[in-house]
Write a structure and sequence with these properties.
Chain lengths: 48, 324
Amino acid sequence: MSTKCKWVLRLGCIAAAAVCILIGIWRGECAVILQKAVKICLECIGIG
Amino acid sequence: MSRMHRDRLTTHASDDRNSAGDGAQNHAQSRQKEMRRHERFRLLIQLLAAAFFNGYAAGFLKGKIFTGKTKLLCVPVLNCYACPGALGSCPIGAMQAVAGGRHRVSFYVLGTLMLFGTVCGRLLCGFLCPFGMIQDLLYRIPLPKLKIPRRTDKILRYLKYAVLVIFVLLMPVLTAGPLGGGDPWFCKYVCPAGTLEGGIPLLLKNETLRQSAGFLFSWKCAVLIAVLLGAVLISRCFCRYLCPLGAVYALFNRFALYQMQLDSARCIGCAKCDAACPMALDVRKELTGGECIRCGRCKAACPADAIGSGFQTGKIQNQTKSQS
């Protein structure tokens, strides 16, 4: 992979990441994650 | 040639051989020293990262989890948000939480992973992941080690992509109803980090949870024991074959800002890098691929200083040791 190609991918990914994060925040995904994370996740600990 | 002259020549040759031998021995010792120093440094970073991601110490004493707002942020490593000390969310758990709900795909987690992956790649696996650190420590237990045949190893490495697609991306969506409610399949049936960091500490402290534990908990403990035993016998066994987060970062590793580079002109082909690699890679061929966790052991082991690493903001600063 050439250096130029790598830089195009890097910048493209960083820009896409920023857009995705903003869309996620706008859709209220953070609230879903917070709601799940502040309660004991019974599936994660193996209770079900 | 007089006898005295011959004796003198023999003595000189033997001195040369001795000094060459001493030089090689000193060089090998200095390499070992360098490797030990590097591993101590890496362990320190791993411990600090584990303490930072699980900084709510009171949670371990009370058997409760942290409920602050920082949990809406994803940490860049596999660190269960049900761990009593966890201050942030596990990106794999968060992705399934959203996927099992109304939205199906989490752009927020996807974006966060893309950002971490593009900047660091699998450097996060090598230096920051607490579960990676546990595996590194387990592999130090002096027991006979398993060597997986190269071909089998290569095939098994694709398993983690299957785990990512089936357990993390597909099943939570397929099992969800129109209003959500899908199970986080990876967390529920596979994740050994959740059992170790969340399940066991919480059950030890919480009587109600202990009474609720049934077959699923036994299954998860069995998976955990298998993975931990695997880690004793095979270096970074979970990272190599099962970790879905490692699979995500592997996609970015080739072009991530943090890179490792081999200077072929300096390489003497001694294969000490291969012997040092915890991921059992053919370092000279696979250093820039998706499987390298950027732990830097190969760089510390290289007697010719042929391996360089760093954030690629221009040209990688190679062979810092020999330049200094």
